[in-house]
Amino acid sequence: MINFIKSRRSCRNYQDKPVTKEQLNEIVECGLMAPSGMNTQEVKFCVISNSDVLNTLEELAGRPFFYKAPALIVVYSDPDNRYAAHDGSCAMSQMYLAAHALGLGSVWINQLKDFVLDPKFDDIMTQLNLKGKTIVGSLAVGYINGEPKERIIKENRVTYVD
Ligand SMILES: Cc1cc2nc3c(=O)[nH]c(=O)nc-3n(C[C@H](O)[C@H](O)[C@H](O)COP(=O)(O)O)c2cc1C
User: Fold this and answer.
1) Which CATH number goes with the domain that contains 20?
2) Which site from 84, 102, 124, 152 is most exposed, i.e. has the minimal number of CB atoms within 10 Å?
């Protein structure tokens, strides 16, 4: 398990191959089971694998901001949830690992957080029921293409008090 966690990497290069509903359900279930402050479980998930919707998002963004992954899992909450960032990040982390366990690649995509505030995206965000929501992040998911670059871990970030 420890080695498994250490071997997870973000993926920014995906095969042109769909992921299945079962795979996505498994990943989201791991997000649903993430810890939440006071067990409020207020973080929600929007699983997008519809290629028309994904194409619209990419066209509006003007660039392939989710690296042409075949699915995007948006983690969001109502704006009055003070634990949104914490709970959503726990869910994102568990989903990152779930994708890894299924042999899939994934990466946190931050941009939707800003797009939801941009009037250009109003129609698509309304269609996705995300208008007015706080978006914590989204996870691009798909089959990995190629190897990630070497990971470099910065030093001197841990203090031990024995
Ligand atoms: C809060 C947060 C936001 C991130 N946003 C993006 C993003 O928008 N696009 C992207 O390619 N990677 C994004 N990442 C992934 C990081 O760049 C990545 O985790 C980091 O480079 C370390 O690489 P690793 O995940 O392979 O260990 C984000 C990660 C976090 C935790």
Assistant:
1) 3.40.109.10
2) 152
